[in-house]
Design a protein that fits this description.
The chain has four helices and 35 strands. By secondary structure, it is mostly beta strands. The chain has two domains: about 190 residues, Jelly Rolls (Sandwich); about 190 residues, Sandwich (Jelly Rolls), CATH 2.60.120.560. Strands 19, 21, 22, 24, 28, 29, 31, 32, 33 and 35 form a ten-stranded antiparallel sheet that branches. Strands 2, 4, 5, 8, 14, 15, 16 and 18 form an eight-stranded antiparallel sheet that branches. Strands 3-6-17-9-10-11-13-12 form an eight-stranded antiparallel sheet. It starts with a helix and ends with a strand. The relative contact order is 0.13.
Amino acid sequence: MNRCMLLSILCVISLFSAICAAEDAIVPQGKMKLFNGQSFDGWFRYLRNNQGDVDTTWQIKPDGVLACSGRPAGYIRTTTAYKNYKVRFEYRWPAQPGNNGILVHMEGEDRVWPKCLECQGGFHNQGDFWEIGGFEFNEHKIGGHRVSGRRVLKYGEHNEKDPGQWNVYEVWCVNGTVRPYVNGKLMNEATDCSVTEGKICLQSEGAAIEYRNITIEPAENLPWPVTPTNRINLFNGKDLDGWVRFIPDDKADDAKKWTVDKVWSVRDGVIRCEGKPNGYIRTTESYANYKLHVEWRWTDEPTNSGVLLHRAGIDAVWPKCVEAQLAHQNAGDFWFLSFSRGKVDGKQVGPAQYANGKKKHPSNERPQGQWNRYDIVCDGKTVTLTVNGLLQNQCTDADPWFGPICLQSEGSPIEFRNITLEPVTR
């Protein structure tokens, strides 16, 4: 066999392997049961080094309950790889709660820690991410106070019920994005994942746990962006649950206090921002079509801040977004950041790194120490800015037109309160 023929055959084999690999993962065509409640059809049970007895670790109880003893370490996984789906199941701790997890996009050989993204299921930690085997995603690469080694902490407080009660865990895996929800609450988000398909595993990791109603369905009718149907309080007046704090290159000092802890705090029912260094807090959830109300005041000399609308992409000091300006004497201006764009007074503004659309009227901001009101309506691709009751600006054809909402740290101390969303009325 000559060299050219050998290379041709190898190329054909490689192409065939790639095609087969691409065809391995399937997109569910409809909602279906992953676990039939009667047998382990469609599942493979794996224990570390083949220790123990899989029939002891994994059992099927009456009423279609899948029971795991928690020992030895291992998992039960689907025999099929999936992509672009929502997996849903119910779980409970029948006795003392402990550690567990759901592994998505698992690939490669079976081992206790296969290459995958773990959506943590440990008691009161469900929603944390663990990258395993070299799995990578943006939120882990960025670093900061939520990242500890291979772990990325969930957004805020846990949402798990007491032991003995059934919880609902839903994980949306859409292209390169993974979003876990516990009892309806978004717990975390991983974007631009290095692996976007694979098998699904339920872990055996120390404590007895039970599962039921395990289903998978196509990733249709995404739960984001959220369009409010009633009034939503974005700030609960007590803490920053529901918000993500971002400061680039965030590092802890010798007292193990992160920069974000020094910049953002909650005092007497208001959010206080020290203004330095630059960064923001953002909603964990993504929103579209809403009325946003936010109040702010300067506690020291007024300088600069902003309300960033429709943040797109990953966290950055100047993310792609439409900024409702809060700089002193300029509240009501638009800034289109990082190649966002819109039309102001019928004229195209952006795309550019920074592009400004001036407000219609002279500043009507109140003096230092007094509260101001921003009423912002995002209706499709149209954004209107009203400052203290005066319509100051409007843009159309906004791009982007949905995403998280951010409050900036960009100058001097500023406080925020009464942050709410309501439906757009037409």
